[in-house]
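Ticket #4471: structure export looks truncated?
Reporter: QA, pipeline team
Priority: medium

Steps to reproduce: submit the single chain below to the structure queue and open the exported record.
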Amino acid sequence: MMEITAPVLAGQRFLHGMAAGQLDALAATASEVMFPAGHRIFADGGYVAKFWLLESGHVALDVQVPGESPAVIATAGIGEILGWSWLVPPYQWAFGAVCVTRVKAIEFSAPAVRDRCAADPALAYELTRRLFQVLAGRLQETRATLIARSAAYEEA
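Actual output as written to the record:
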């Protein structure tokens, strides 16, 4: 396993351009993990203890539809962050995530990152700003998925 350091994190698209001290703070909360294809990383409604930056592989983001199997609403891949619910109380997953392929990721302790954000408002601002960009993109992806599903339903 690779040691997670500030230079390693600086190479991650999501964190690129952050101050060295901020990256050092994040590196202290991080480790490298691997998940096999088919592994459910988290489920809708569960407590958020971790989040990830994907180094390889793809993850499907899903939502549980009553009486049906989970519906995939988006995907996350190399260079993307997986998980944003760690930042907002009550710290519960808004979606689920399952590995489509084998995944290698940098895993962060959510409580430890929240503690560092509380101690460093500039770090909190920088992470929040970056997460909002991700959320806006995921919202647009979800919107497109729902429109496509609606059109397919109307054709059937």
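Status: closed, not a bug. The export was complete when the record was re-opened. Leaving a note from the reviewer for reference: The mean pLDDT is 92.
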